[in-house]
Design brief:
Length: 149
């Protein structure tokens, strides 16, 4: 069983290696094609008159800027999608905060006052009673939910 496990791992590593080598070969081929295109364009531009060389250079720069512009548009679209997603999450969190505030506002005034007194007491005695918490039994689900979130 151990040898089979090692053999399976070796085969998996070999497949990963072969896939990586193939991807690198494709990348090298693409770079070679691009280099050949650039060399041909350079040789063509040398055969042109000075005015035509300027025009050719401008065309090359326009092409490069157009491609860069398209890449930036794609990036902008991805960022806008991410912004929409984050805005939705923000709305959810704002709603949760509002629900919590509404719940706290619905508590009887005397209980809120008692909780404030408990908070003050805990703050004053924090050094003496670290890790201790006083709460009402009916608030236990809320307390657990708040601890988890």
């Amino acid at each position: 069983p151990f040898l089979r496990l090692l053999e399976a791992q070796l085969q998996e590593q070999r497949r990963d290696y072969e896939e990586e080598v193939e991807a690198l070969r494709n990348q090298v081929d693409a770079m070679q094609e691009e280099l050949e295109k650039q060399q041909q364009a350079f040789l063509q531009s040398l055969q042109l008159s000075p005015e035509a060389q300027v025009d050719f250079g401008l065309q090359q720069e326009i092409t490069r800027l157009t491609n860069e512009n398209l890449d930036l548009k794609e990036l902008l679209e991805r960022l806008e999608k991410n912004e929409k997603k984050l805005k939705k999450q923000l709305k959810i969190y704002v709603k949760k905060v509002q629900d919590l505030e509404a719940f706290q506002a619905a508590m009887p005034a005397e209980r809120r006052q008692h909780e404030r007194n408990m908070q003050v007491a805990v703050q004053r005695k924090e050094k003496d009673f670290q890790g201790m918490l006083e709460y009402y039994k009916e608030d236990e689900p809320l307390l657990i939910r708040n601890l988890i979130t």
